Amino acid sequence: MDTTKPVKQLEIIKIALLIAVLVTLPLTISLFRTTGFNKEIFSSELFVDLDLKFWFFFLFSWATLQFNTNWIYRIPKRKSLVVWVLRLSGNIGILVSTILLLDFIYPYLVDKDVSNREEDFQVFIFIVVLIIIIFISRILRLQIIQRQSILENEHLKQQNLQNELSALKNQINPHFLFNSLNSLNSLIRDNKEATMFVKKLSFMYRYILQSGDRDLVPLKEELKFLDSYTYLIKTRYRNRFQIEIAIDETYLDRKIPPLALQLLAENAVKHNEISEIHPLKVKIYSQEDCIYVENKVRTRTTLAEGTGTGLLNLYKRYYMIRKQQIIIDKQSDIFRVKLPLNKMK
Q1: Burial of 146 by CB count in 10 Å (0-12 exposed, 13-18 middle, 19+ buried)?
Q2: DSSP letter string over 214-231?
Q3: Least buried of 39, 87, 107, 313, by fewest C-beta within 10 Å?
Q4: Which of 194, 198, 168 is nearest to 180 (CA)?
Q5: Cα 28 to Cα 249: distance, rounded to the nearest angstrom
């Protein structure tokens, strides 16, 4: 989700104008009580004072809103402490600069000095306005996040509907397929390698059907499925494809989205050269409550056709299910994906 989307300028200007009007409202009322509705109002000292303070409060509100809703979010992601220090420094800088500039300009335009009492009260008003603006800025950012969340949910709903439609179009009766595989198995029972291939294929299809209505499966089940997939790949590539699994037994009951490991292994097969000179080796290992899948990068000269959405769909599944994120590390010679593990419930 993109939470750095800027707040619209028109919205910020409207809020800044409203704040300036509300803050200077007592001065406006006082001005009309003193001079009434006549031409003298525009030449009076009170009008110049009101006009100057109105525009200063407007500019102060606009700059503070811009800083807290847009500018601070353009900074590359840093530690929260650094962001808070920058945010605090920026707000104080805008506050002090505005007050000093007003104190400097005021005597020249109004032709009188500001009393200490009036200056203290003015500083107090600016601080109160700053606090209010910080709260308003937070509300504006939350609205942005909410809108993005609604748009993303709508997109996911549309995507799910499209997937369901595709599934209906391509639906094959499972019983027909399993019966066909059993028939094929009986025809080739004398060929042990072919028989094993059919059994592994049958297990894979059954696993895909059974896991279709589950968001998470135990890691040990996913590894068993991966073993069947690996067997099929090795049947094709023989010793040109290797998979090395080193996962601590304490992680076997942890949960993972179904077909996640198979998708990453398939991704490696699809995008890398597999030959006698350059065999493909996929490593899968556990570390600090995560599973890592990595392989050496040797890009194919002719890439296999694909939608390019496999990793993106896996990323979305992790975020939707547990608000977790997979980490994709693309280096010049190594491709690594980090998958967080969930505890059994």
Answers
A1: exposed
A2: -S-EEHHHHHHHHHHHHH
A3: 39
A4: 198
A5: 75
Strand partners of residue 244: 283
Q: How far apart are CA 28 and CA 12, in angstroms?
A: 23
What's the residue count for the chain?
A: 345
For domain 214-340, which CATH number applies: 3.30.565.10, 3.40.50.720, 3.40.50.150, 3.65.10.10? 3.30.565.10
Residues of the chain with CATH 3.30.565.10: 214-340
Q: How far, in Å, CA of 295 to CA of 228, rounded?
A: 20
What's at 87, amino acid-wise?
R
Per-residue pLDDT tens, the chain, 345 aa: give them: 555 677 888 888 998 899 888 888 887 776 666 655 555 555 566 777 788 888 989 999 999 998 888 888 777 666 677 778 888 888 899 999 988 888 888 887 777 666 677 778 888 888 998 999 889 888 888 888 888 788 877 777 777 766 665 555 455 556 556 666 667 776 677 777 788 888 888 888 888 777 767 788 899 999 998 998 888 888 888 889 999 999 999 999 998 888 889 889 988 988 888 888 889 999 999 998 899 999 999 888 776 555 556 788 888 878 777 777 888 888 878 999 999 887 655
